[in-house]
Design a protein that fits this description.
- There is one protein chain.
- By secondary structure, the protein is mainly beta.
- The protein has a single domain, classed as predicted glycosyltransferase like domains (Thrombin, subunit H, Beta Barrel), CATH 2.40.10.
- It is built from two helices and six strands, in the order H-E-E-E-E-E-E-H.
- It starts with 13 loop residues before the first helix and ends in a 10-residue tail after the last helix.
- The N terminus is likely disordered.
């Protein structure tokens, strides 16, 4: 499978790397549950205010251990208790996502795409 040797992080480590921060305070808001070009689901320790606009930041591992920020704005559309006690899922709509965010969506889509790949024998 092309590109496998270039992976810097293992799949089970992705939640650690895909932490979402408040861009203003740099405090963690939670972890990405999923994302698309239009929105994301955040898993956090508390319910978030529906209708509120959040200034968010993702910190993506870059070259030579330098973290690259991706800043964006998102509005909370819904929140509900997760199946895991003490965790909440919140859905967000992105307002004009930056190109770096859209690139991340595509990179993750490619990273997790297994269809069409057959193991070498």
């Amino acid at each position: 499978m092309p590109g496998v040797g270039r992976r810097r992080i293992q799949r089970q480590q992705l939640p650690y790397y895909l932490k979402v921060y408040n861009r203003i305070t740099d405090k963690p808001l939670g972890y990405l549950g999923n994302l698309s070009c239009e929105g994301l689901m955040l898993i956090s320790q508390w319910p978030l205010l529906v209708g509120a606009r959040f200034d968010m930041r993702l910190k993506i591992p870059g070259a030579e251990g330098v973290w690259r920020p991706i800043d964006f704005h998102a509005t909370c559309q819904w929140t509900r208790e997760d199946v895991t006690p003490g965790s909440y899922d919140s859905g967000f709509h992105l307002e004009s996502p930056p190109a770096e965010f859209l690139e991340l969506v595509e990179a993750l889509r490619d990273y997790f795409a297994f269809t069409g790949h057959k193991p070498a024998h």
